[in-house]
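INFO batch 0412 | record 1 of 1 | parsing
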Amino acid sequence: MTAIMSPERLLEDLNPAQREAVAATLGPLAIIAGAGSGKTRVISRRAAFAIETGAVPADQILLVTFTDKAAGEMVERMAALGHRGVMARTFHAAALAQLRHFWPAGHGGASLPSILDSKLRLLAPLVGRLPGGYKFTPAKDVADTIEWAKVRRIAPGSWLDEGGERAPIPADLFGRLYGDYERVKEKAGLLDFEDMLVRTVELLERDAGAAELIRSRKRWFSVDEYQDTNPLSERLLELWLGEYRDVAVVGDPDQTIYSFTGATPEFLMTFEGRHQGARTVTLAENYRSSPQILELANRLLAYGGRQPMTATMPSGPVPAVCRFADSEAEVHEVAAWCRAMVAAGVAPSETAVLVRINAQLPAIEDALTRAGIGFMVRGQRFFQRREIREARHLLRTVHPPEVGAALLAAVELLLVDRMGLGDVAADAGQESRDRAASLELFLGIVEDLGAANPAVTIDAVLAELERRDAAESAASADGVNLLTYHRAKGLEWDAVYLPALDEGLVPIRQARDIQEVAEERRLLYVGITRARRYLALSCSSRRPSRFLDELLPPQPGARSAAAGRRKAGVRVLPGAPLIAASAPDEALLEALRVWRRERAAADEVPAYVVAHDTTLAEIADIRPRTLPALRRVRGMGPAKLERYGPEILAVIEGSPAPR
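INFO prediction complete | emitting tokens
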């Protein structure tokens, strides 16, 4: 038994809200923990306080974390407080241990099947056999949808009734594919990640003895990142609890950014109503960011109707905001800013550049490489993405003999015919969007090489791709951190740059309803609150993100109510003036779609071969009036410029500009 220590020491350096949460050791408790509010300290101190005041024996505690890494860190914190042996695990790790214990008794003594390391191993061949263009659907998007279904306990046979239009392919086709996946998995004697929870829930629902045994071993629970709980893990928590009431949940609804996996803040927001006698404690003091950075984050929360955080850190530099003429100028500034951070005494490893999607990273990698700045990509490197490896293999295998503009046209045709480069459906999954953006960028790299050398050959293209791959691979392990907003969750740095805050990226173009736009707002909030002292934001399109308008101080002569509510505290750097996001030119966009449909019919090719939806949208945004201006639109390579440029300019000329 752990020796009784002086529990009061655990309260001495806490603020009043933290102290209240730590001392509330019995009964249901919800802790609303804003960004940088010291929630990990509160969770560990609360468990130690419960042990030392005799509320619960250490061996009956289960601290549930979001990741295995967080579980390990929690175990270390508990040990530092003098309580070794307190269990901290993820939902999946705890469920797997329980499943392993009970499985043999219900399966003739057989051991638990192996856990599938990735659904993609089974799904890739199944997706490859789909009809028509559906075979180009990224298996990852299918895997994500299966995960979404399984955490809601939607079986393949129920998909048409319960899944709706969630899938990246037609619902009936997805239902059959989902069923095929389950059959192949069962035949191979495997369980997947969600099966750990599904099978454990089924076990505890049908076997009262097993449920009673588990409850006798753990009766005091603390669940971190509760805003990302899904229906399946919530059901498992209910089964673990049974009649016990000692459960604390910790989370922040403003940091719910995984709804695409089935996560919902609803369980956190309704916790008091679902647990009789529950209390809520809000941790609103921020111990991470400077007051200037936190002021910016609070403005974003104010537009979302949330409670502001209170700063406790010393004053710091004012966040910088700038608008650039184009993305090339913007990434050049990102490199200059990273160098300026080093000059200001910030270590490269304490600097981060955060983006919305992975496909934005290569341009930044290239700018940092040219500037001699080391970087570390958290996540998959661009040249290691599957579609990029396949595209390079395709060019090596076919080895088109053309040169210059003819070569660029040949490469584009190969990517269209062999890899499905083209339109991305409005409801496409994240991987589909990333895949399409990666292939577009790959094609853009080839086009840039052609622009630099009108006689470029395939060998020169392949050599340059090899050079860029090597440079990316050799990037310094302790350099500037490059990663997406999602991967940045739970991390923090002294200096953070958020580029490309443009409509179509933040919020992402596919965010169509209020809930989806609200999640994009939360993503930006997560990005801003990763910064401790230095923060920079920028955009580089005609349509800055609508969120930037909320963050900026009022402009001289501003008349809008929104402008009147904005406060000072943002340093707008020299450059084109930042304006509110303009509405897209829908009339021009529709005229361009009509032209594309007619031209595709005349050429007897699919519409996306003429121009992608993203290309038409950008043309409608910037309304180029000359061929050189049109060439700067992504997707308008030399071949397309020669073939379609004059016609596109004529469509623009014939469409009145919006007032």
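INFO post-check: The longest strand covers residues 531-539.
INFO record closed
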